[in-house]
Amino acid sequence: MKSNISNLKDTLAGIIDSCFIILVFVLPFVSYPFILNSNKTGKELFFVTVVFAWLFFKALKGFKNKTLNIHTADLMMLLFFSYVIIHFFIFSYYDFLYNQFWVFTGYIALFYLFRLSLDNKNKPGASFDFIIKLIWFSCFAESIIALLQKTDYLNAGNEYFQVVGTFINPNFLGVYMVTGLIITLYQFLFLGLKNSIAKLLLLLSALLMLYILYLTDSRASWISLVVGVLFLLCTSSKSFTFLKANKKKAIMLISALFFVGVSGSYFLYQLNKDSVDGRTLIRKITISEIKEKPVFGNGIFNFPGIYNNSKAEYFNKQQRSWAEIKVANYVSTAFNDYLQILFEIGFFGFVLLGLLLFVIIRKTELNPKTRLGLTFVVIFAFLGLFTSVLYNPTAIVLLVLGLSLLVVYGGNKKEMLTITNPFYIKSINISFIIVSFLITALFYVKTQTLIDFKIVSDSGNQKFYYKISDNKMRLIEDDPFIEFKFGFEKFHEGESIKGIFMMENSVKKSPIPDANVVLSNLYLQQKKILNAEKLLLLNVGIEPFRFEPRESLLKFYIENKKFGKSFKTANEIINLPIKIESKKAHLYKENARKIISRYDLD
């Protein structure tokens, strides 16, 4: 009887795990149309809620555990996470209610949830097989959605791109297609498929994913696919044997691959020079900021605010070449995760993260499962050189899965401590139960508050404070856009000091040009001329190729009788090349010429 009850509990726990695994891997398809920024913010809210709800159930199940093994990787994870938390509260512009903070925490929780699910002694390999098929199915479904967008049967809902799948941009879609292709290849190589229909379906899905990858125009994704396929194939025992026995052929093969890689990279660069040049500029300015604070960095999640201010200073300080000006778009990431990590948490945090990964990867036994895990790690480590994996939650979930595979199946776990005291084990589980329940409840309330925020925003005539209390406002005001909206309302409802403070804090986190213009106008109402000028100059430097910021600055100088600066700004407008032809650009130039003529007449 006890055995039957135990089996029933294990079966129920397995079903719960499977349900949460499904919820985690359907993340790409999640969107919350009932809130603003439905795709990005919706995915964040969903991810945190699912992960901590899963942690709640896992902690409940953990009460019956008699031992708790602590490994070297766990101690390194604790050290790294402690550093990040302390660093966050000291240096970050945000507080602990910020979504991205809990998304990051969710990644660490997910690492352990994957480990516990994969390391199932009763049904070894069951969760792994289920996850492989689930990822393949999700990637295949995503490719079908993208195909429907390409053929205009489905609207992407994106004003800039026709084909994005359910992602916010084609690059994220490209990364997902790479994952699908690697998983498809893995099934062909290791699952021993005998069903002809299954093989045909896999082949057709691979062809469709390749086509969608082609449509994304994602250079980094193509290169990462080649790297991933080569790594998966070359880590077999046969490959090692061949390389050892045929050193000359191996050298020739590696040389040929290197030549093809360099040639391919040059060809891909020619396809979109401005994109590559733009990222070169980002790296240049980012590195200069890293040099200013190399040890501890500039603060987690502070990149958009600090980088765009630094870029504005770079362009406003002296005349720069048109080659740099034309690619200086507003950006919120470094498009290089290694630089972004150094920028935000410094060399000390970077070393801790490196040591954590080293402990997880070192002495890993190569087998089909760990080869797949290492392939994921290599792919995303490579992509991190050219794009932002850190802010692609779907990619990080797959990276976390890869690291979990290495820990569970790598045979390199080194136990540092074993806890057998029932009181300590139960205390740890109670702590996780309480924390996970509170976070799940918190994000449920946050979601409801964001729904109310959208309702008020869409109405156009309601006031936020009628619908949302100050306590609920605090749950969501860490979002720069929301904080600015709240501050703007408070300013016009008589709380000008509080309102200005909130808007200033918002543009410090994310100096979006439109927000800067609004705040500069409010400064003018308060006769804070220098503050207004500073923001208008910031806009010029943030997007130096645009005419509108210079036109706004020119009007400001004329209205405030700063004739010398008016003359200088008008000349800049006349001499600024046109990046994208438009009637407005020529009107701005004509207006500047009239102003110059007026000064000449005077």
Automatic annotation (TrEMBL):
Record key words, sorted: Membrane, Transmembrane, Transmembrane helix
Native source organism of the sequence: Flavobacterium salmonis
Location of this chain's protein in the cell: Membrane
GO cellular component, as recorded: membrane
Segments passing through the bilayer: 12-33, 45-63, 75-94, 100-118, 130-148, 168-190, 197-216, 222-243, 250-269, 338-360, 372-389, 395-411, 423-445
Residue span(s) of domain O-antigen ligase-related: 205-353
Membrane topology: Multi-pass membrane protein
Protein's UniProt name: O-antigen ligase-related domain-containing protein
